[in-house]
User: Fold these one by one.
Assistant:
Number 1:
Amino acid sequence: MMRANADQYRLREAALGTWPDNPAVEADLDQRLLFLARRVGRAHDEDPRPADAIFDALQVELQNNPAAYDRSPLYAQDGVLLMGRACAVSDECRFGWGDARDAS
């Protein structure tokens, strides 16, 4: 649901012409989310339920400090929308949720 909301927000902003034309802006956000997700993932390597712990930690960080990641702001510095974008980055297999097979 979070990813769908983030995608809907992005499409609405693009339709309104307010989404940046420069793909580097979105790439910067994705890279920041990726660095955060990998760091949080490493911190929960030994957790018996790593996906839950990673999700919770990501959500707390994005809610408490959205401006550090959404600098432009593409997603209105909204923690829920940023979490949806982080899920999209995960869906691209760029980070995992604690699975031992994750090579990120």
Note: Residues 68 and 81 are 14 Å apart (CA to CA).
Number 2:
Amino acid sequence: MSTRRDARRELMSAAIGLSLDAGFDQTTVDEIARTAGVARRTFFRHFRSKEDAIFPNHEECLGRVTQFLESASPLRPPLLVVADAAAIVLDMYVEDPETAVKRYELTRRVPALREWEIAATSRYQRAFVRYMDGRREEADRETFRLRHEVAAAAIVAAHNHVLRTWLRTGAHGDVRAQFNAAMTEVTTALRPWIDGRATVDESSSEVVVVLTVKGTPLWKVAEEIEAATRH
């Protein structure tokens, strides 16, 4: 682990620990820096504010999520891609369970921090909607916008439920297995609606043939297949 990352983690640990002990409003940047063993200017090289020091690096994580969505195979169902993207956010918390548990306890005590976190995490939901919109033909996007909004909100709600349940137990149990089970439930329930089908008949033996021009991009082929199966 780099020295820069070590300093960031020490500052975050100090900010959360001091805020739990003395109160968030009473904790100063100088105290955080002193407890972490760094200069005040080092704090501001890593964070813009005390709030930034409490939470994980959502900016960096959002970048990873966006890159994952942009590079996803056009042959995969969009809802499953979004579920996998949500797992990236989960992993950010899981990589440091002790800090995640303390952060959760602190945000439960300080309403302003809960609001700050909601605002930060809402950016993932918007990214999910943009991705699903982008998988549609432009003429279809407005028609399916409500479904994309609902699906993105459901994925985020399931993620938050699993994460918070895990944190309330002190980070015990296999949270990734719990997350996968939750995503399976959500995506199974929503996929027919998102795909524009009322129901999915798994036993159907109907064959769909799609003709396309050689060299057609895969994303376009996938869209043609989806359109054909909706009729």
Note: The chain is about 75% helix and 0% strand.
Number 3:
Amino acid sequence: MIPYLLRRLAVTAAVLVVIAAATFAIFYLMPADPAQGACGKACSPARLAEIRTTLGLDRSPVDQFTDYLGGLVSGRTYGTGAQAVQCPFPCLGFSFQTNQPVWRLLTDRLPVSISIAVGAAVLWLAVGVTAGVVSALRRGGFWDRAAMTAALGGISLPVYLTALLLQYLLVVRLGVLPYPRVVPFTEDPAGWARSMVMPWITLAMLYAGVYARITRSEMLESLGHDYVRTARAKGLPEVTVVRRHALRPALMPVVTLFGMDLGALLGGALITESVYGLPGVGKLAADAIAGADQPVILGVTLFAAAFVVLANVLVDLGYAVLDPRVRALG
């Protein structure tokens, strides 16, 4: 198991380097003037020349990329002398529009994105997997048709439309929930949960339908295998047959999808945060795009990519728990 984990971590490190190289090329080598993107839309010629010098754009691309990677692992200093700007580890860039390191901007917004992503993930995983299992066990029945119809409806509705409908129904018409706002969990857990309910439901309606359909399909395949029929022939309780012999192999693709979805959401649920006005990583990315703040866009891109890659490592560990054959590789 340990050698297997070490191999996965080595591959992960290589993937992150490739992602860093790709983002560096897109944001620094392909534009005609990267300093313009870092400076923003309204930028004086003097400020533009200053940023160009600070970024070291007069140096070779190899030297720029070396400094870029060095900043990711140990921090870096932009410019020299009185104009030097410190960017501590991990340096994902420096926003010249806000005069702050991108990492600081991200960590300030990250608690909101974690609150949204983790709460929604728990909800959609519980609802989606349960609905998929019930649909498979009641194939062709009323519950199967009802669950799959609801799943299709949840998948079809755009996130922004679901968010607006929930605000209208739960806040304006019924008044059972407040408008979403930032409430620290440590100060008011109940208020935190109430403010996050609508974002959770918005994302869960989208993802739960996908998980329900995948779980149903995999469960139907598992229930048709010989080892499930053998377990039933031995007289094992139906709950044991479903839980130990049918559900575990059916969860393999669910675990894969869950790791990718959760990693992407931790990198920022852009539409959901924008509609509800929640200052998360996704809202930060939207504001950076609107203001043409290139370093922030680059930092969010790397941040989200790192979450997805690391989530896939956790998925591989989940495989080892669900499937003994994977553990044997270690």
Note: Strands lie at 76-78, 85-87, 94-95, 100-101.
Number 4:
Amino acid sequence: MDRTRAVLLGLVALLLAITVLLVSPFQDFVFLAILLFYPLKPLYDRLTEHVSPEIASTTLVVGATVVVVLPVLFVLRTTVRSITSLLGRVRRGEISFTQLDARVEELTGVDVDLAETLRTVARDIQFGAVDGVLGIFGTVTHIVIGLGLTMFLLYYLLKDADRLAAWLRATMPLPAHVETELYAEFEDIVHAVLVSHVLVAVIQGIVAGFGLVAVGIPNAVFWTVVMVFLAVLPIIGSFLVWGPAAVYLLVTNQPVAGTFLFVYGTIVVGLTDDYLRPIAVERYTETRLNPAVIILGVLGGVYVFGFMGVFIGPVVISSLRAVLDVYRREFGTDENRPV
């Protein structure tokens, strides 16, 4: 019996390792499907009271595509087109930064040549070359296939969620009440991370966008959408857009507009991240995530998992705490139980 168990566990470990290798190229899109599943599951349960599971799943997948996937593709397409157009014009000498270079040198004493810097960047990424075009095509293809995989997985996660949960309960070697506790903790953690990231990011991006509109930044609506996506990164987030915009206004002889945008971004936009995030977590979830956990999880998650690590990192660290809490409740002594 022990030999049979050892062989089976060895096969499980081998197949699990191979499965990880197969999934890893699309891990971000798998995690995205899981993250979308949690806020959509309550809607799915309500829809299935009136329509079949297949229709409910299809409806929610189409809705998620319209609300999430299409805006992402729009931002990626617009960003790539804007960057390639700018680099192409700089490379052909159609854009000159002479006035801006002179202003920067006047303020800092440093001789800069922004046009030459951008030309170097264009050469480094082989803009217009066959390799560069193939690289961009490969990246876009990977994203399109990955997003299609996300929607496919989301459909079956919604449709077969109960069957998957029953299989996990029957497979995991844990008592039923422990599995229930762990699932409840994990669900609340995911909810807390989504609320603290997505809801606050949307509000922060829109608030920062008002500042861009107020000072007359071109394409303010597009940059607002970009800031919504960037705002999922705590601390730096939308600053990556309004910060350079404020500097640009200052060095192009628009001190009032530049100063206003900097002060507005630092105080008003900063408040949405520093105060609204904890309030949102406390209001909409039972889990109280410490801000240090969120920041550490986000930064570490980005290094390990890429952009989706913004969500995965805090979930992993908070899940560790949840598992330890369940362990304490199950096996802790009276001395280390909370009073």
Note: Residues 176-339 form one domain.
